UniProtKB/TrEMBL annotation:
It catalyses: sphinganine + NADP(+) = 3-oxosphinganine + NADPH + H(+). It is found in: Endoplasmic reticulum. Pathway: Sphingolipid metabolism; Lipid metabolism; sphingolipid metabolism. Belongs to the short-chain dehydrogenases/reductases (SDR) family. Its EC number is 1.1.1.102. Catalyzes the reduction of 3'-oxosphinganine (3-ketodihydrosphingosine/KDS) to sphinganine (dihydrosphingosine/DHS), the second step of de novo sphingolipid biosynthesis. Pfam families: adh_short. This is 3-dehydrosphinganine reductase. One of its GO terms (molecular function) is 3-dehydrosphinganine reductase activity. Keywords: Endoplasmic reticulum, Lipid metabolism, NADP, Oxidoreductase, Sphingolipid metabolism. InterPro entries: KDSR-like, NAD(P)-bd_dom_sf, SDR_fam. It comes from the Eukaryota. GO terms for cellular component: endoplasmic reticulum membrane. It comes from Photinus pyralis (Common eastern firefly).
């Protein structure tokens, strides 16, 4: 079974010698972050400001926006940097058009759009309310589609721009208790692949961020009422800090990588799920070619573990009846 270690070794070597690049400059660039009042979005805003960017964050809660604005301003390296906040429901296309017009009028041309707005409500399908299903699909899908739809023609006309779509490892594998959430994140993966085709020959890049569980207020809220099986399965990939995820997201986007992932488990699922997705480098191609077979066995091992967790949950439930 020694060959199963091959992908681990290759992953570590290629990541060190081929994937580690100096981040490109964001100095005086205009970065817009949806879902920027907390979690990964807020961490991205802070990091972008620390690299000299002018940052605009978008969310619905004005109080949270003001708190995030204060923290982002503290990270600025130049007194002339701009940090702006806008309250917006990103599922309302009319409002998106109006507010994004204001954002460019006040802050200048957008260079990077980072879509972080989203929500996870974890229940088995029969326990999900219709309202929760509709809300989550609208926010996770349309809340990314509408802002992206606004910036894309602008980026293409300028022959410059970066679009980041924050999805999840649930974009690559369906998980117990995440049926609707996974559906919304699978949709974002397909959206990102299609938009990449529309954008790449206009010097506009698309990055699909696939974070595992991240220690954010959103995750803490998500864990309330989350099925025990889902907690155990999602915990297999560990828990990452938002600033770590934000740094990987931002660096990968600036390096024009299509996939942005962090951690070995995320590497496994992303490599196995690559399929017809864009490839960002020769190193990435080689990694996928050499690792796909062994990783399939590793992936099946994970899946068998997940099934054991679910089976024990079913047996426990049956005994309690």
């Amino acid at each position: 079974m020694f060959f199963l270690l091959i992908p681990v070794v290759l992953y570590m070597l290629i990541k060190k010698y081929f994937f580690s690049k100096s981040p490109k400059k964001l100095l005086k660039k205009h970065v817009v972050v949806t879902g920027g009042s907390s979690g990964i979005g807020k961490s991205v805003g802070i990091l972008a400001a620390s690299r000299g960017a002018n940052v605009t964050i978008i969310a619905r809660d004005e109080d949270k926006l003001k708190l995030a604005e204060r923290d982002i301003k503290k990270a600025c390296i130049d007194e002339n940097q701009q940090v702006k906040i806008f309250s917006l429901d990103v599922t309302d296309n009319v409002a998106v058009t109006r507010v994004f017009d204001q954002i460019e009028d006040s802050g200048g041309p957008i260079y990077m759009l980072i879509n972080c707005a989203g929500k996870s409500i974890c229940r088995t399908l029969e326990d999900m309310s219709v309202d929760d299903i509709t809300f989550m699909l609208n926010l996770n899908v349309l809340g990314t589609v509408f802002p992206t739809r606004w910036v894309l023609p602008k980026f293409k006309a300028r022959k410059e721009g970066i679009i980041v779509i924050t999805a999840s490892q649930a974009s690559l594998i369906g998980i117990y208790g995440m049926s609707v959430y996974s559906a919304s994140k699978f949709a974002l993966r397909g959206f990102a692949e299609a938009i990449d085709m529309e954008a790449r020959f206009h010097n506009v890049s698309v990055t699909l961020s696939l974070p595992p569980d991240t220690d954010t207020p959103g995750l803490h809220a998500e864990n309330i009422g989350k099925p025990e099986e889902t907690l155990l399965i999602s915990g297999c990939a560990g828990l990452f800090q938002p600033d770590v995820v934000a740094e990987r997201l931002l660096d990968d986007a600036l390096d024009k990588k299509f996939f942005s992932h962090i951690g070995f488990e995320s590497f496994v699922s992303t490599t196995l799920g690559a399929g017809m997705s864009p490839c960002s480098s020769i190193a990435e191609i080689l990694l996928q070619l050499f690792c796909m077979g062994p990783l399939r066995l590793i992936g099946l091992g994970y899946l068998a573990h997940f099934h054991r967790i679910i089976r024990r949950g079913v047996e426990k439930s049956e005994k309690q009846k």
